[in-house]
Amino acid sequence: MQIQGHFELQFEAVREAFAALFDDPQERGAALCVQVGGETVLDLWAGTADKDGSEVWHSDTIANLFSCTKTFTAVTALQLVGEGKLNLDEPVARLWPEFAANGKQSVTLRQLLCHQAGLPAIREILPAEALYDWQTMTSVLAAEEPWWTPGQGHGYAAITYGWLVGEMIRRADGRGPGESIAARISRPLGLDFHVGLADEEFHRVAHIARGKGNTGDESAQRLLQTTMREPASMTARAFTNPPSIMTSTNKPEWRRMQQPAANGHGNARSLAGFYSGLLDGSLLDGDLLNELTREHSIGQDKTLLTQTRFGLGCMLDQPAVPNATFGLGAKSFGHPGAGGSVGFADPERDVAFGFVTNTLGPYVLMDPRAQRLVRELGECLQ
Question: Which of 136, 268, 284, 351 is most deeply packed, by most CB within 10 A?
Fold first, then answer.
């Protein structure tokens, strides 16, 4: 497999580990970018980007990064907090009156951001096309009854997070959440990252497909079994209602929409650049960065059925939990995306990391492919 891009010699072992991913015949395409102290030390890509495996992954190939998007959304919301347009601890319903329905009158933006609001799923079965209708989804969520008492425990809002936080951004900033993210993060930092992709960029998007035959670890199997066997459960509803959630990623209407929980499109460079921007103070001041990265939620996740630890819209490291550690310092923060992509920062080593793949693995939190790369990186940094 020909590995494209460049790397500094100190990090040759990471390049070798990246090349070794392609020993697996199922691995289609991937990219890796690592910045240390704001300087790019690895920027690699390889494999194929299209459905048939005939088109190579290019320097400017982008992919759906799924939940890696959530931290971009949280940072945008925190910028609005810094400007006084949003308030973490005010009721959501002050800005969004309809949201007060069904006992949600005191739910705060902070609770939305750290997955404590009790709204990871929708009970009423929705048609597939509802996924692409912002008004439908925000109205349904405004009317929804929480699945638990808000503030008492947490459950990952895999996709509803995008409408909940996105609607707050829209009301506070006067434009779509994807437009806010572009204006506040992508353009200022020069990142090739989009929430709501223009049609003329579609030719650059890698086709996403699942790997076959790998059932993942225990928590992946538990999540799958619950989703299959208990279709009315909160966990199942979170991933299958609307039913198009799991099948939409390669569709034009998914790429076009601004769903800031899960449909950000970008590359490894944009993930590393984003986390460098958090480390160097370009995106948030120290107090707001501290809010983003301090522990808000920890313990058994009511949605994912595994232990999670969150700040505000970012996942915090759990060094002792194999599927929930980024693999560098214990103060690392970031976000994995479904199937294996991940972006994170390790403030202790001033490292920003981005890994993108179009071969989806089955894991719930961290993918072992990214963890292997990080292990090698840690060795090189010693």
Answer: 268
Tokens 């595994």, residue located: 306
What is the DSSP pairing of strand 194-195 with strand 264-266?
antiparallel
Q: Which distant-in-sequence residues (6+ apart) come within 8 Å of 320 by Cβ?
A: none
Residue whose structure tokens are 């009158």: 105
Residue at token pair 């990142």: 191
Dihedral angle sign, alpha carbons of residues 117, 296, 298, 379: positive
With CA atoms as reference, report the closest residue to 126 among 259, 241, 248.
241
Q: Say how far apart CA 279 and CA 332 lie, in whole Å.
A: 11
The two three-digit tokens of residue 95, written as one number:
């800005």
| DSSP β-bridge partners for residue 46 | 30
Please report the DSSP string for 62-96 in residue order. Answer: BEE-BTTHHHHHHHHHHHHHHTTS--TTSBGGGTS
The per-residue pLDDT for range 319-374, each reduced to its tens digit, is 999 999 999 999 999 999 999 999 999 999 999 999 999 999 988 899 999 999 99
Measured CA to CA, the distance from residue 61 to residue 244 in angstroms comes to 25
What are the tens digits of pLDDT across the range 362-381? 888 999 999 999 999 999 99
End-to-end CA distance of the chain: 28
DSSP character string of 303-356: TTSSEEEESSSSEEP-TTSGGG--SS-TT-EEEE-TTS-EEEEETTTTEEEEEE
| CB neighbour list of residue 287: distance below 8 Å, 6 or more residues apart | none
**DSSP 8-state code for residue 108:** B
Is the distance from CB of 65 to CB of 264 less than 8 angstroms?
Answer: yes
Nearest to 116 by CA among 80, 84, 92: 92
**Token pair of 305, please?**
């059925």
Q: How far apart are CA 224 and CA 305, in angstroms?
A: 11
Q: Give the Cα separation of 128 and 145 in Å (integer).
A: 21
Q: Is 262 left (phi over 0), alpha (psi -120 to 50) or beta?
A: alpha
pTM: 0.98
Contact by Cβ (8 Å): 93, 181:
no
